């Protein structure tokens, strides 16, 4: 028996997602179904799939479940979280501000502008209290694990092969996303190899956040409040944070979320 599912396609600076309003459950969404929906040859095509669902607790507006393009439910997706805030506004669930639950707990979201089918969205990220320094980079968890590598020119890096090698490094038993970053004038330029997608993605919200914090530690920033601009292949972001005694708090990921199209698909 076939089942027709309504979906929307959103992207956060090229990091694209199949978005489904699942407040009234439309399907079970097995690993195989999610992988097929995300397939760029046999499905809709996306870096991941997000279900917007009824809140799991009384003090939030909605909850989200995120699946990587391999079909497996995954940890926090920063860009996906920004896109689901825009999606909730599109569905008229929220106005400008909200609270939502995700894999790693409760986050706040705020829409600061809307233009040309694009929302400017800021979301809160959890505090980061532990960064591990290695000779070749810094490892930290911003809702998803990231290994940040500092290079002279991120444009020149073979992200697919070098990222795939490091993604399975023995230092990361459960695997890690890999970020390569370099100076870009007054900004940081970075590229990410994303686990679960198993390829370079045009943008990565948790990776942008991880890179900003690792950059501050690697460059020995003094304690204080900062907002770092970061460019990825898909677009521009800002990460605001407070740094004190190598602990990072009041972290906010800011960037665009755009609706591309909507449709129906048969599972």
Describe what you observe in this structure.
By secondary structure, this protein is of the alpha+beta class. The protein has two domains: 129 residues, Roll (Diaminopimelate Epimerase, Chain A, domain 1), CATH 3.10.310.10; 125 residues, Diaminopimelate Epimerase, Chain A, domain 1 (Roll), CATH 3.10.310.10. Helices cover 16% and strands 47% of the residues. Strands 1-2-3-4-5-6-7-16 form an eight-stranded mixed β-barrel. The longest helix is centred in the last third of the chain and has 14 residues. 43% of the residues are buried. The mean pLDDT is 96.
Structure keywords:
267 residues; alpha+beta; Diaminopimelate Epimerase, Chain A, domain 1; 2 domains; eight-stranded mixed β-barrel; 4 helices; globular
Based on the coordinates given, report the CATH architecture of the largest domain: Roll
Mean pLDDT across all residues, rounded?
96
CATH superfamily of the largest domain: Diaminopimelate Epimerase, Chain A, domain 1
Strand tally is 16
Strand order of the largest sheet: 1-2-3-4-5-6-7-16
| CATH class descriptor name of the largest domain | Alpha Beta
How much beta, percentage-wise?
A: over 45%
- The ordered string of helix (H) and strand (E) elements is EEHEEHEEEEEEHEEEHEEE
Q: In the residues, how many domains can be counted?
A: 2
Quick gist of this model?
It is built from 4 helices and 16 strands. With 267 residues, it is of the alpha+beta class. It is globular and about 55 Å long.
